[in-house]
């Protein structure tokens, strides 16, 4: 008997050892979380596979799943993906460390912090039908989970709305994404929640706006009646509006939340209150003069809900560019009237710019600066020549000579443009081309930065330096005027490998001179009315082109009913 017991003991040891060796072999060859559910020849397994295929084919014919009645946003991709794996289930909790439906729901319940809608990712049917699904809904819930993951992954990485079809004069490049790769990545990671945390945008700008959005939504905003815009309130004045103004400054954090306990009665516009207003003005791109004028009070009248909508729009705009890293990048933000030059996301230069007025808006697009023109002449665009210059010439033909304009008919220069009867020239009968010679008074200044595009816009110098003193700088006909063009020129040429001596030699040439760039510099003209500032404060800017409202309305539409990215 003892011999038999001993044999049984050693037999068990041998079996366990063999099993351990087999498991170690499998773990060396397979990832820790198996993407594909193990193949099975059981009748139940075959039925499941047949159901998934049948459900997808039913969806292709009707546009919705048979049992749950839900439409899939990625049915074609899902058919191909599931087909490659034999139409087997992807999200069986038996083969994962954590229940994937619970992880997905956990993330979807806080997706509004991204400014996105849980309803776009089947939050309600997943909650109601898929946590403990009835047998008839198991395969449909698997498809629903996959569809939600695919849609949300795309929205987090490239945005929800297609701005090129929604907004005028907009060309935002769409990064390439492989949907099957995204789903494979999601399924192979240990935690589905961690997968989303990994692929969501992580820039300081995005994180700052997202946290601020969540914090703002969590607060109970007081009633927000309109504050009268006039008259202005200056230091040492007493005004009944100061009570409401102080409340809003405390709400936004420009004034300590307990300041009202220290406030004099009647309230006087002085000391802490003035400093809070100046801080508020800086965060809103206004002249920080401490005077409560129309612009400042108008900004104070903007409600928390309006700011929430602004944050939602700007989070979306960050996502449009999330997958477009660049070693060097020049960004022009139109609402903030600023240019920033970056290397590996580190700021190198920042300077004010002038952008297009409301009637001649600067377009939104991405390109590369390919060459610079030093001492440029200015070929006046036809629309500008007929709308702006022709009335000036008709009033005083001497305007042409005083401003050193040459007049061309086709390619022939007219020697004496004063002989033209300008009174008879009209916009519909304007065969001429106006060209301003290089010089200190040339509209383009000393240099223009060229990125050839269909809009015929570019960066350039300007002799009208006084316009940079304005806080709202929408004065141009679409091109971007740069306050410190020579600083930008040196930065671009140095990053293209030119020595200081080479740059000086180029600048010393008095004639018009083109400098090609061996390494073109990416440039992005963007439209951001809210962003996270370098001083770790939220920055808001005026929606000068009235684009935000249209984009917000599109973001509130179901993903299946809008112009998708």
TrEMBL record:
Keywords: Cell shape, Cell wall biogenesis/degradation, Peptidoglycan synthesis, Transferase. Residues 328-506 form the L,D-TPase catalytic domain. It comes from the Bacteria. Pathway: Cell wall biogenesis; peptidoglycan biosynthesis. The keyword Cell wall biogenesis/degradation applies. The keyword Transferase applies. Signal peptide: none annotated. The active site is at 460 (proton donor/acceptor), 479 (nucleophile). Belongs to the YkuD family. PANTHER family: BLR7131 PROTEIN (PTHR41533:SF2), L,D-TRANSPEPTIDASE HI_1667-RELATED (PTHR41533). This is L,D-transpeptidase family protein.
